Amino acid sequence: VMEPPMSGAVPRSVLWVPADQPAQVRSAVDSVADVVCIDMADLIHPANRGAARLMMWGAVTAAARSSKGVWAHIGVESIQEDLEACVWPGLGAVVASVESAEAVRRLADALAALEKERDVQSQVSIVVALDTAAAVWSVRETLAASPRVMATVVGGQDLLPLPETTSPRQLFSAQEYMQGRIAAGATEAGVPMLGKIGRDIAPGHLAE
What we know:
By secondary structure, the protein is of the alpha/beta class.
């Protein structure tokens, strides 16, 4: 049984790498990052996602044998398929974009079933990615929905600022409001916030 080194701990740094690029996964394992997050969604061309899932067992196993924590980023529309590909001994957490407490509970139930089926001894945590306005609105309930929720992650470009209004009652921007709501919800739920930085890639241009 392989215990995830970062199980239950909030990392200082998480390095995201595409699941269909074994060389990048190996480089990430050799890096100084605390956690390697193997991405099956945003960093993968849609045509390669099936192949990426087939590589996950080897990627999770290899990363778990190092001193790194291992996370997996799963897709919004392929949650079950991605979970079946990545939930193996050594996985510490899954990063998922969920918009409600019910979605978190369904994800937790799916994780529990796979852990039992595959004799995964360490409970896999959930890192909630807040990517939409609906997710921000329900942040308090979402982050408190399951004891598996270990952190939330917010991308700098995921919640784009809305156009400023001329209302004299507006004291701060919509982006500031959303950040404040997320911070308040995370504090109330006792869940730390992780900031996500990186490069924007226009949809349809992943191949280039």
